[in-house]
Amino acid sequence: MTQTAKLLSVDLDGTLLRTDKTISERNIRALKQARAEGNLIAVNSGRDLHSIRELVPEELYDYACCSNGYEVYSRQTGTSVYGKTLDDRETGEIYRKASRLFLLVIFFSEGKTVFCSHRWFGFLLKHFAYFRTLLFRDGGKSDLFEYGGASLLKQYKIPKLCFASSHSVLERFASSLDRDRYNAVFVSSFWLEVMPAETSKGNAVRMILEREGMTKEQAVGFGDGDNDLEMLAACGTAVAMKNAMPDVLKAADCITLSNMQDGVAAYIEENILRQKQNRI
């Protein structure tokens, strides 16, 4: 399907990563072979660079698009291009709206998960590892957490704020935000992320394409969550995982196997590596 692929933009959670946050040997082989044959790999995740480096071996990617496109890191040069963070006025405005709905408010900065919400939420997450394991992607390691209220918002650079609750409550919260100023996207049905309007995985892809002198048609995107929609739209071919959210499945050009079935590798083997073999 994608004979001209040159850039593969791959989401992590729910896409390349298995539920235990590891990468299968089949996915590793496929990415290595794709790179060996001249394709560029961009890991495109909501995670920050610290987290991506912990999970993804450096030999598997050329670019890391971090925090939903806030930072684009080039492994070749070892440098990053940064977007806009949320300023104090914006975080304060968003936090006040979230507080009215009793939402969990979380952000990630400097390799740490920072929790700033109602004190009872803080008590549960601080003292009961079970709740942290349910919510957070680092397995609930207590030394990576900081707890506090709204005052923490002014102590860090914040590319995005994350919110956890029921889907209906998060939808109500998202609808209260000014979409001209904020980009609010669902990562899963109970997890919403809010960032500046110009921040998106799609803009990160477009930045790489311009830098590399490539066209949209030469890019393939792999994703599962609503925060991947702009990335998929920025690519010539949009590949949804079988386990993707409904809107992602609708937007996709094709659907591959689930993240637990090595769907990224299955697509690469069939549509990129095999296509090249057929042209030889």
Describe, in plain words, how this protein is organized in 3D.
With 280 residues, the protein is of the alpha/beta class. The chain has two domains: 7-83 and 199-279, HAD superfamily/HAD-like (Rossmann fold), CATH 3.40.50.1000; 88-196, Hypothetical Protein, Haloacid Dehalogenase-like Hydrolase, Chain: A, domain 2, CATH 3.30.1240. Helix content is 37%, strand content 23%. It has eleven helices and 14 strands. Strands 5-4-3-2-1-12-13-14 form an eight-stranded mixed beta sheet. A hairpin with a 2-residue loop joins strand 10 (182-188) and strand 11 (191-196). The radius of gyration is 19 Å and the shape is globular. Residues 127-132 and 137-144 have low confidence and may be disordered.
CATH architecture descriptor text of the largest domain:
3-Layer(aba) Sandwich
| Alpha-carbon Rg, integer | 19 Å
Give the low-confidence spans.
127-132, 137-144
Q: Major β-sheet, in short?
A: 8 strands, mixed
Q: First CA to last CA: what distance?
A: 16 Å
Count the E strands.
14
Name of the top-level CATH class of the largest domain: Alpha Beta
Helix percentage range = 25-40%
> Overall 3D geometry?
globular
Elements, N to C (H/E): EHHEHEEEHEEHHEEHEEHEHEHEH
Q: What is the strand content?
A: 15-25%
Strand order of the largest sheet: 5-4-3-2-1-12-13-14
Number of helices: 11
Might you state the CATH topology name of the largest domain? Answer: Rossmann fold
**Taking all residues together, what is the mean pLDDT?**
88
Provide the CATH superfamily of the largest domain: HAD superfamily/HAD-like
Count of discrete structural domains: 2
What is the SS-derived class? alpha/beta
